[in-house]
Write a structure and sequence with these properties.
The protein is mainly beta. The chain is 10% helix and 45% strand. It is built from three helices and 39 strands. Strands 20, 22, 23, 24, 25, 27 and 28 form a seven-stranded mixed β-sheet that branches. Strands 2-9-8-4-6 form a five-stranded mixed β-sheet, with no helix packed on it. The relative contact order is 0.07.
Length: 657
């Protein structure tokens, strides 16, 4: 069967439309690039069935558009109904929830837990703080396992024992019934800077019946520290020349009403400061002091010495903090109780000055022995580019230890009225005019008084100051006066004494044998060693000596508690005393050691005094000055100068039977 001829005419029309310039294009909706699947017959046998199927599809396409609209309206109606139903359900749920909440049955709210705090608005640092809390349960159900957790500011201490840090505490309350009020008291000691606010964070933790969850109500509270528990002041020069010694006196005073324990002082030195020494010595490093406990109103002082270097007009800031040491690091402050600052302005000196003691250079403290004379020397050099005229140097002394009768100077004039030594052009002609780069020196001598424990002096010292004045002429030829100052400290070391006495009729032991000693006869003696100390504490004190080979050690020692060691091979004796406080042997009992020896003189020793003990050496460290004190005593023989019965030389020489 052949296809209809009308198909050929249709193809011709389509071709004409395709190549036509006037035929308008027909807009069609874009479809996905997925063609419809049609079943194509392999032969002409079923062409009629295919035509019928195609006709049915065309009929569907030509269906009325009103039917489509009816189907669309049906879909929209269903969606509208669903939306209205959902909105209605939401309204019903919201109303139900509001109703249940308004009934307030078996519900709990932190807002209905009222906390009333009674506490002072301000408290002094280091004073006990009392905080009272009244906790009221305004809910209709009880709260269970309630506890108050408190976090205190850093550095807080327990009120019962201020040595115990208090950072966090928990107060168990238990069950609080509806409408019930529970009272909680908190006690602590706060530390911090003056006029600072200390925040205390609190939280009430609780549970409710039938739930394992923990609920929290946070509570904030603040207290103002009205006063610091400690006051700090720093005293020192405010202007200084570069490379000159500086002394700072740091005073710490307790303002607390109760004892402060373990107070730590930490210094912060500026760039250019070279630490020399301090009194008392630092506990750690060069700027940490553990000052120990402070009673109410007690004051303590730390003196820091060093040398400051820098450029002209530069400021150097020193800062000192006092506080409670951190538990994990005892050399760091956990809570600062107070702090103080001191500024020194460096100025370029017009003269390069130096003050030497006993020809020893350096800007630190100079240590002299008790009763020792000191030779002072002032050296100068004009550092300006112009000449100086009419220079004058005035040496002044500060301290009750100065002995005015010991002051001498060939280059200057001593004024006893104000205890000063003056150098000027009348006493030293080189001071009339000092050209640029010109230098010179003058000398003087002085000495401290002999210090005795009865004087009651603690940490004896002297200050020597040099004030220099001179004139220069400015560009307008007008004289201008310039000044410079230099100071040095002199520390007086303690005077340790060691005496050794051979005895026969006195002492803790009973001696026997002929006096004077006889050839080939055994005689026993007592050797009594005594240590005294005047004005400063001593530490690490030892006495060392030896017995001659022919002297017999009897092993008798008094007092028995003294640390005396005897070497039988070398015949060495070492007495370890340890600490010897100032005043020992004067206001305090002397340290003594007695031991017994024996000799049996030989015929070769006839007519001579027999040596019982070789030289004695004593050594100790002066705690205040740091100087090592050493002294030596001569050997001791049978000459018993201090024996009450046999004190003359008649009883000292060996006799023949």
């Amino acid at each position: 069967m052949h296809p209809d001829r009308s198909d050929e005419s249709g193809m011709s029309d389509l071709q004409n439309q395709l190549y036509s310039r006037t035929h308008p294009p027909k807009a069609r909706a874009r479809r996905h690039l997925r063609p419809d699947t049609h079943q194509v017959e392999e032969g002409w046998e079923k062409v009629d069935e295919v035509e019928e199927e195609r006709a049915a599809q065309e009929a569907v396409k030509r269906q009325s558009p009103n039917a489509k609209k009816r189907r669309a309206r049906g879909t929209r109606s269903a969606l509208t109904f669903a939306l209205l139903a959902s909105f209605g359900f939401f309204l019903i749920s919201a109303a139900t929830a509001a109703y249940l909440l308004s009934r307030d049955t078996n519900t709990i709210s932190p807002e209905k837990i009222d906390v009333e705090i009674t506490s002072p608005l301000q408290v002094g640092g280091g004073e006990p703080l009392l905080i009272q809390l009244g906790i009221t349960n305004g809910n209709t159900v009880p709260i269970e396992a309630a506890s108050l957790v408190v976090e205190y500011p850093r550095g807080t201490r327990a009120a019962d024992d201020v040595t115990i840090p208090l950072e966090r505490s928990r107060e168990d309350i238990g069950v609080i019934l509806p409408g019930e009020r529970q009272n909680v008291s908190l006690r602590a000691v706060l530390y911090g800077d003056e006029q600072t606010t200390q925040d205390i964070a609190m939280a009430l933790e609780y549970r409710i019946e039938g739930s394992s969850a923990t609920f929290v109500k946070e509570i904030d509270h603040s207290v103002l520290l009205s006063t610091a528990p400690l006051s700090i002041s720093v005293d020192g020069l405010e202007e200084l020349s570069s490379d000159q010694p500086v002394e700072l006196r740091v005073a710490v005073v307790s303002n607390a009403t109760e004892q402060l324990d373990e107070v730590l002082l930490v210094g912060d030195y500026p760039f250019g400061f070279r630490f020399s020494d301090a009194e008392p010595a630092p506990t750690a490093g060069e700027a940490v002091w553990n000052l120990g406990s402070f009673a109410p109103g007690e004051a303590k002082e730390v003196v820091v010495n060093g040398v400051l270097t820098g450029l002209d007009t530069q400021d150097r800031l020193f800062r000192f903090d006092a506080g409670i040491p951190a538990e994990e690091s005892p050399t760091e402050i956990a809570a600062v109780l107070n702090q103080a600052e001191h500024t020194i302005v460096l100025k370029q000196p017009f003269m390069n000055l130096a003050l030497l003691f006993d020809r020893t250079p350096g800007g630190g403290a100079h240590v002299v022995g008790n009763r020792d004379a000191v030779v002072g020397e002032i050296t100068w050099e004009n550092t300006l580019d112009e000449s100086l005229f009419g220079a004058e140097m005035v040496v002044s002394f500060d301290g009750a230890l100065l002995d005015p009768r010991a002051i001498e100077s060939r280059d200057g004039f001593f004024r006893s009225q104000d205890t000063t030594i003056r150098f000027n052009e009348e006493t030293e002609e080189n001071l009339a005019r000092i050209d640029p780069g010109e230098s010179g020196r003058v000398r003087f001598e002085f000495a401290p008084r002999r210090i005795m424990p009865s004087m009651g002096l603690v940490d004896p010292e002297l200050w020597v100051s040099v004030d220099v004045r001179a004139q220069r002429f400015n560009e307008e030829d007008v004289p201008e006066e310039i000044e410079s100052t230099l100071r040095r400290r002199v520390l007086v070391a303690t005077d340790m004494e060691l005496t050794t006495q051979p005895l026969y009729s006195a002492g803790p032991f009973e001696n026997e044998g002929p006096i004077p000693p006889e050839v080939e006869e055994r005689t026993t003696y007592t050797l009594l060693l005594t240590v005294r100390n005047t004005n400063n504490d001593l530490r690490d004190v030892e006495v060392y000596t030896e017995l001659p080979w022919y002297v017999e050690w009897l092993g008798e020692v008094e007092p028995a508690g003294e640390d005396l060691r005897y070497n039988e091979v070398t015949k060495e004796l070492r007495w370890t005393l340890g600490d010897v406080p100032r005043g020992t042997g004067y206001t305090l009992p002397a340290r003594t050691l007695a031991f017994q020896v024996a000799i049996e003189p030989s015929l070769s020793q006839k007519g001579s005094e027999v040596v019982l003990l070789y030289e004695q050496f004593a050594r100790g460290v002066d705690v205040y000055t740091g100087r090592v004190i050493e002294l030596t005593n001569d050997e001791r023989s049978t000459y018993m100068r201090t024996d009450p019965e046999f004190g003359g030389r008649t009883w000292s020489k060996v006799q023949e039977r």
